[in-house]
Structure formats: structure tokens, C-alpha cells
């Protein structure tokens, strides 16, 4: 199985794969980069080995094969889970995080979340608080990754209103040049121990269809 994945990677990806110090990190890299190639090939005649990627100024990978429709994607990986999102031309971002105890989540939330979100989080405790923390974290990451901007984005100027996994609104501080109506957010129930958030820039009020392909990949994951 790992040989199959390795055979899909480009020379550049293989170099990166060999550079990791810890086997877990190289393993995540290998599986997730093979996954992206495999998923993209579900939508075209390009075989997984033949995908070519370029990178934006902030390192966001994009499909660079000539002559294709504008297929976009984004990838995220963490301990125990890799996920990617694919769209036709729309900006898209995905983030997955394993829910785990972490040092001083309240301190991080005070810096990175809106005042409202920080206040709500402070009223929670234990697992509920951690779940809240990683939900707001992944939503921010998904948005920042969809825009392809870097780590310096002032994420405390975003405020998420989460009514349900698919009813999520975003408010921006006035100095952020963006419109909440242009974005669809979704939390995907991929795994009980992880939070998976997707951000897609839409046109008009209609949500983009989000189709979860997880089960289609069991031969890829286990075979
Ligand atoms: C790279 C970055 C965008 C995501 O990092 P991360 O969460 O550690 O990692 P993820 O597994 O979710 O995503 C990594 C993948 O995103 C893609 N990626 C890299 N740079 C990217 C960028 N600027 N924009 C979008 N996607 C990017 C790559 O496919 C990368 O995979 P690779 O590292 O195996 O090549 C991160 O460095 C970053 O800038 N995050 C936003 C910072 C932030 O403010 N977070 C606070 C949230 S409260």
C-alpha cells in the first residue's frame, strides 16, 4: 500500500517525504499527497501520477496541468486523518484537527478568536470546551486556506456563528475586505475524534453541493 502511494508522488514530493525527521510526519505527508492525486483523478482523465502542481506566493498548491477546466483543491492532514476538498474554480479551504488536550486553549482563543467566541468558550469546560476550541480553530484555518493567505492573518477579526454543521455564518471586522454572504462553511462528520471544517467561496446565495466521498476510498486507504 505504501509502495502504491510512493509510486504516485513526484520527485519533488518524494524529496520532501524523505526530509521529515519523524516517521509519523513522513507517513502523513505520503498518504495525504497520494490521496489528493487519487481524488483529483476521480474528476478527470488524468492519472494520479500525472498531476502537476504549482504554488502561490504563500505556498498554496494549485493544479498546473495545462488544458484542464479550473479544478481547485485544498488538503489538510493531522494525526489519524487526511482530507481534501475539490471545487471547480471556487476558492476552497479545508482543515482537520484531532481533538486533544492542549496547553492554555483559553489563552490562544483570547488572541485568535473574536471577543464573543472567547466569551462563549469561557462558559464551557472539559471536552465541550475543547470541541468548541477546535471547531472555531478549523473554521478559521479553512477560511484562511481558502483565501490562500498566510499565517499573519488577524483571525480575531473573524466571528463565526455556528447554528448547525451546515448553517454557519461569518462576520468580519469592518477593516477586513470581505463579505460573509460570499462564503459557505461546513463541518463534516468524518471521524468522532476529529473536527473537519470546509470553506468555499460561492456565487450568490446558493450553497455549493458538498459531497462526502469518504467511503469511496476504502480500497485506497486499506488496499
Ligand atoms: C500551511 C497553513 C496554511 C496550514 O497549515 P496546517 O494547518 O499546519 O496544515 P494543514 O494540514 O491543514 O494543511 C497543510 C496543507 O495545506 C496546503 N497549503 C500550504 N500552504 C497553504 C496556503 N498558504 N493556503 C492554503 N493551503 C496551503 C498544502 O497542501 C499543505 O500540505 P503539505 O504541507 O503536506 O504540503 C498554515 O501554515 C497557515 O498559514 N495557517 C493559517 C494560520 C492561522 O492563522 N491559524 C490560526 C487559526 S485560529
Descriptive account of the structure:
- There is one protein chain.
- This protein is of the alpha+beta class and 223 residues long.
- It folds into 2 domains: 2-69 and 213-222, 4'-phosphopantetheinyl transferase domain (Ribosomal Protein L22, Chain A); 95-201, Ribosomal Protein L22, Chain A (Alpha-Beta Complex).
- The chain is built from 7 helices and 9 strands.
- The protein has helices at residues 2-8, 11-19, 23-41, 105-112, 115-122, 126-147, 218-222; strands at 53-55, 61-63, 71-78, 81-88, 92-98, 158-162, 168-172, 183-187, 194-201.
- The strands form 4 sheets. The chain has a 3-stranded antiparallel sheet. Strands 1-2 form a two-stranded antiparallel ribbon.
- Helix 1 packs across helix 3 (23-41) and helix 2 runs antiparallel to helix 3 (23-41).
- The relative contact order is 0.13.
- It binds coenzyme A.
- Coenzyme A is lined by residues 29, 32, 58-61, 74-77, 95, 112, 137, 140-141, 144-145, 148, 150-151, 153, 155.
